Structures are given as structure tokens and as C-alpha cells.
TrEMBL record:
Protein's name in the database: Aldo/keto reductase
PANTHER family in alphabetical order: NADH-SPECIFIC METHYLGLYOXAL REDUCTASE-RELATED (PTHR43364), OXIDOREDUCTASE-RELATED (PTHR43364:SF6)
All copies of domain NADP-dependent oxidoreductase, residue ranges: 15-315
InterPro entries listed in its UniProt record: AKR_Detox_Biosynth, NAD(P)_OxRdtase_dom_sf, NADP_OxRdtase_dom
A Pfam family this chain is assigned to: Aldo_ket_red
Organism listed in the record: Shewanella electrica
Length: 317
């Protein structure tokens, strides 16, 4: 596996990021520890989470994922220096004042995240969702203050379109402050329209790092969901039904063909396609079992031919 420069953040990361949304949702703390250990042992080094993970699970209120990661870091002396932690602010935590991208909330939220993570800094802090009620200037200045204070090392945004990202870049240039350096968009073999085109071009032109979420389309691209009867296989199954259409089956057929040629799994091929995509630094992917992590390593070492990449790309059109 080759390390990759994350845009102009100065950070280098391995080509796959662990998605921490499963912590405190589909896996408990003990299982999470085992998977994080396996992830690092496999040579990976970057974990993505958010302050809202995983408030959607019954009995949760948000912060569960960060808390588990913090407990893991505390239980593994020296580990903080070996891994990079990404987290986010801006989602509605359904508590008074705890949403959006105001300066006041950002400065409060980072302290709460750092406390849960049991660390003095995060490597990359994302604006999770656009906030139409707050100017880019206020948000970016707050992020820059956190950067100057040493609480964050780099700045990113998730779920921005090309116009929004360009507007934020223009604002940062006008104020002579650090702009968003990394984008986290939804992007996978099936869901491509939100990133491909002007947004992808902008990221490449401006050397903005890109880490993709829903990289396996909520597990659909693993190939384990091929009919409506399969949707009950996991807690995420109910969100997969929308992919069971002509386009989805065409993508699965292409994945199966390429996977067979490489003696690989469909998920490994889907992740390898993302790793080879123009402008993508690394996909984010989650795991609920240790053997999924070994699959990540296979994906990172999988080299698809130009013909295979074209076959997969055309299947998703």
C-alpha cells in the first residue's frame, strides 16, 4: 500500500479510511476495539468519525463513536501518534444550540469532541453539512482560530456542491485564511452525479483532498444484497433497497466479472475503483468483523486494468 498526500494539508494517509459510524451502533465497544486493532495491524492509519455518531441508534444521543475511539486510544499507549483522527461538527444534535456552523458552537463542539476522544487535537475537522444561516467567513475564521490554537491540524467540509465549495474558497482567499483543504462527498460506483463533473474538477484543480463516504453504497456494493429478501441481513439493509434496480444489477454484474478475474470480492473491487478514481485520495469504509479489515488490505493492493476500470465505470452510467 502506498501513502497518499491529503491535498495540501501536509498530512499523509494510507489509501483507505475507517468509517467510525458503526461504533456504538452495529458493534459494541469490545468489538470496536478488536476491529480498530486489526485495522492498524493491517497497516492503515486513519479513522473518521463525527460528533453525531451514532445518535440514530435507540438509546443514543450522539458522541458514542468518539467516546469509543477515545477509550481505545487511552487503552493503547502511544497509539495517538500512530493514527490520524477526523471528526465533524455541524449536524443537528437535537439539543439547544448544538447544530450548525456558528463560531460559538464550533469552539464549544471541538472541546466536547476532544474530551470524548481523549486527545488534545484532531488531525482534520470537517464542517459536516452546509449551514445556510451562517456565513463562510464566520465558519472559516472559527476553524482557523482552532488551527492556530493547535486543536485541529487541517480543515475540511462535507456535502458541499461545486458552487458552495467555490464560494468558501473565494471567502478564504479574500480573508487570507486557510480554506477548506479536504472534501468528504458521497461517492461510489452507483452514486456518482454528486461528485463527478464540476466538483471533481474543482478539487483536482485546487488540490483539495477527497475522502469519500458511502463508498460501498451502504453495503450494496459488497454483493450480499441481490434481492429484497436479502435486505434483512443487517441493520443497514433497509437503506439498500433503492439500489436494487437495473443500474444496480448491472454494476453488480460488472463487479462479479472483475472480482472473478482477480480472485477478489466485489467490495474489494468497488473500493479499488474508488482508489483509482481521479481526484480521490481515499474511500471511507466501515467494518463490523475483523475479516472485513483484511479485505480492505486486499482492496488497497488491487490493481485494476484500464479495461476493467472502464467496464465498471460504464456499468454505472
Amino acid at each position: 500500500m502506498d501513502r497518499r498526500q491529503l491535498g495540501h494539508t501536509g498530512l499523509e494517509i494510507m489509501p483507505l479510511v475507517f468509517g467510525g459510524n458503526v461504533f456504538g451502533w452495529t458493534i459494541d465497544q469490545q468489538t470496536s476495539f478488536g476491529i480498530l486493532d486489526a485495522f492498524v495491524d493491517a497497516g492503515f492509519d486513519t479513522i473518521d468519525t463525527a460528533d453525531c455518531y451514532s445518535m440514530w441508534a435507540p438509546g443514543n444521543q450522539g458522541g458514542e463513536s468518539e467516546t469509543i475511539i477515545g477509550h481505545w486510544l487511552k487503552a493503547r499507549p502511544g497509539m495517538r501518534d500512530k493514527v490520524k483522527i477526523f471528526t465533524k461538527v455541524g449536524a443537528d444534535l437535537q439539543q439547544p444550540g448544538k447544530k450548525g456552523l456558528t463560531s460559538q458552537w464550533i469552539k464549544q463542539a471541538i472541546d466536547e469532541s476532544l474530551a470524548r476522544l481523549q486527545t488534545d487535537y484532531v488531525d482534520l475537522y470537517f464542517a459536516h453539512w452546509p449551514d445556510p444561516d451562517t456565513d463562510y467567513a464566520e465558519t472559516l475564521q472559527a476553524f482557523n482560530e482552532l488551527k492556530q490554537a493547535g486543536k485541529i491540524r487541517a480543515i475540511g467540509a462535507s456535502n458541499l456542491n461545486a458552487d458552495q465549495l467555490q464560494a468558501s474558497l473565494d471567502t478564504a482567499k479574500r480573508l487570507n485564511i486557510t480554506p477548506y483543504q479536504v472534501l468528504q462527498p458521497e461517492y461510489n460506483l452507483y452514486d456518482r452525479s454528486g461528485f463527478e463533473g464540476t466538483l471533481q474538477d474543482l478539487c483536482v484543480k485546487q488540490n483539495i483532498g477527497v475522502v469519500t463516504y458511502f463508498s460501498l453504497a451502504s453495503g450494496f456494493l459488497s454483493g450480499k444484497y441481490r434481492s429484497k429478501d436479502d435486505l434483512a441481513k443487517s441493520a443497514r439493509g433497509e437503506g439498500v433497497g433503492k439500489y436494487l434496480d437495473i443500474k444496480g444489477h448491472a454494476i453488480l454484474a460488472a463487479l462479479d466479472k472483475v472480482a472473478e478475474a482477480h480472485h477478489a470480492e466485489p467490495a474489494e473491487v468497488a473500493l479499488a475503483w474508488l482508489m483509482a478514481a481521479r481526484g480521490v485520495t481515499a474511500p471511507i469504509a466501515s467494518a463490523t468483523k475483523a475479516h472485513h479489515v483484511s479485505s480492505f488490505a486486499k482492496a488497497a493492493n488491487l490493481r485494476l486494468t484500464a479495461e476493467e476500470l472502464a467496464l465498471l465505470t460504464q456499468a454505472g452510467i
